[in-house]
Amino acid sequence: MNRRRFFVASAATLGVAAIGTAAFVYQDRYSFIAEAVRRLMGHDYRVAAAQQKAFVDDFLEDYSDKRTAGLITFQRGHELGLGSSFSAYQIDRFERELITHVVTHTDYLAKAAGDSHELSYLGRYPCRNPFAQFTV
Amino acid sequence: MELNRVSAAAVEGGHYELVIIGSGFGSTFFLSQAIEKLKGRVLVIEWGDFHPWAWQIQSQSNTLITPDSTYRNLGEKPWNTTIALGGGMNCWFSQTPRLHPSDFATRTRYGVGHDWPFGYDELEPFYGQAERIMSISGDPDMARVLPRSTPFPQPPHRGTAIDRLMKAAMPDYHFITPTARPRVATEHRGACCSNASCNLCPVNAKFTAENGFPTLFGHPKVDVVLKSQVQRLEYSGGQVSGVEFVHDGRTHHVSGDLFVLGANAIQSPAILLRSGMDHGDTGRGLHEQVGANLEVFLDGLENFDGSTITTGLNYFFYDGDFRKERSAALLYFENRWPYGLRKEPGRHREILPMMIASEDLPHRDNRVTIDPETGQAIIDYRGESDYGKRGVEHAFANLDKLLAPLPVESIQFKEWRLTESHVQGTLRMGVDGDGSVIDAGMIHHRLRNLVVVGTAAFPSCSPANPSLTAAALSLRAAHRLFG
Predict the structure, then answer these.
(1) Inter-chain contact A96–B341, Cβ cutoff 8 Å?
(2) What is the DSSP letter of A94?
(3) Which of B32, B148, B217, B405 is geometrically suited to a Cys-Cys bond with B169, CB 3.0 to 4.6 A?
(4) In chain B, where are the structural domains located?
(5) Does ipTM surpass 0.85 in this model?
(6) Which chain A residues touch B167 with a CB distance below 8 Å?
(7) B45-80, pLDDT tens digit by residue?
(8) CATH class belonging to B8-482
(9) B293 in A contact zone (CB under 8 Å)
């Protein structure tokens, strides 16, 4: 098996099944996050399995495992047409946090300009503002 | 950091020329000036421990003492303090705007709040001195609003693309934020790297007691006793004679000639109240700024290319006759993303997070009391004023006009901020008999060898961050006492 996996594909290797088309059944947080990253980033970015697990573990710790579990419920509700403005707001907050993590905790910025879709996870405490400039 | 740490037992029954309670901005800046003038010895009594920068980074914490363990809060609003050597210098985000000249005279000019017993011009030289000590980086154009007699010690930070547009359009109102996050490295501090985690600065850039006064607490005249909570002052005949404090469950006493009370604006009044001293509005008028978070989505303009966490301050809604009806508001242009980047691919940075801070009107019913049984501080805060909220609401309602130079797509009110982590106003300055507790020299009206320092002394709120002013006030108080 190729040691590099798609964000979304790796969910299966983590013991998760994505079932159906309109309504994913997010059996754990790993598959939920992997699917969200794939959907939001617009590319099938690939990350080594160990790095991806570390990314998700750290994200869950930063964002809160419990909040993420709640988000899964909200997301499922929306996909079943049961969303509210509150749940939509919470989903938006989550997705922005997740995108921010991908952009700032991987080498996405370096890779985005090129053709490579293979990302490396930079760890839990990368530079918090990779856009900052210091020359006058 | 050099530290003459002594045990509580070693100082038991001792006598000092100067006894300082607490070690935050107010106490430390006072000591920095007093030390060379004193002939005798100084004792600093600090409730918390000394936590070096490296410890704080490793443990991702400023102290082991949580704020809510130091008081009983009857309300829901949190009041953040850092109990440790250096106090708020450990956790602060290092924003250092001066107060506006009108902030010192809100009663005279606008009929609200309390006047300070002196004006901006009186404090101005000490603002400059505090800025030199802290190597403040600032925008010289700011003198258009906040007059200054000396230049900022460091050049301004690099603003964002947004700041450049706003400065060009509003040169009299929009400035690069003054800050104790250095633009260039100093002998003991790195340059700010815009890491947006200032409470635990990863490069030791922001000013702290440890990197800013590396030898002060190790001075041959200074003893420091840590993990010791002052219970009460002993006094008679209008003079404080001693201090009772508890260390490891045991009570100790020291005596002195001059005393400085600089615990914080919660614990300082609690110490006075436990001592049976409730002159004036002791403990009353607890307040801080009223704040709100906003987000502005932009069309085609990218943010976050500045060189520090907050790059722009806008004074357009700060001062004018409107302060008779609504509060001054100061707008912070952020070089960080508290709610994350934008989701749209390719547009992640087309966003401007902002914060509006406005002044509250201190109210007597917002107060610190003490538990009659235990002596613990109790916070009885009934809420901010409608006056304070109106300034925020007006600024938000008119933000589209202010931001006309930018390609604004939408503006969203995100939330009222729970706290600015400032604690002010419980032992305010004034004229004896007007409800104030201390005079223009920061000396207690009844206890004439007791100097009260820190933000507890503030008669009015101001939208501006208070730490620079607390430092300048202490430099001035020490200058008046010692020359």
Answers:
(1) yes
(2) H
(3) B405
(4) 8-482
(5) yes
(6) none
(7) 999 999 999 999 999 999 999 999 999 999 999 999
(8) alpha beta
(9) no
